[in-house]
Amino acid sequence: QVQLVESGGGLVQAGGSLRLSCAASGSSFRFRAMGWYRQAPGKPRDLVATITSTYITKYADSVKGRFTISRDNAKNTLYLQMNSLKPEDTAVYYCNSQEYWGQGTQVTVSS
After folding, report:
1. What is the pLDDT of residues 63-83, one digit of tens each?
2. In 1-111, which residue ranges form alpha helices assigned H by DSSP?
3. In whole angstroms, what is the distance from residue 17 CA to residue 79 CA?
């Protein structure tokens, strides 16, 4: 069983930055591929970024060059640094590892 708890969401103006964190329980974090997804109202949940256990990263085209996914295995924590935020980035952001999901954190970007 893995528990994922996101934090760091909030309200920010367009062009601003936020850093999301995802704290994971258990001792298997370092071996797990992790990811961030987001879901805007009325839309499906979409992949934002992923990172493997060997630190290989992948990004959705819409966030490339603006978002950075990273992990700290010593702290069992996944991060998403979001810069140059746009109103279309507004969504609930979810942390994911295989079948496990966090509860989500709201990110709202005002124009």
Report:
1. 999 999 999 999 999 999 999
2. none
3. 13
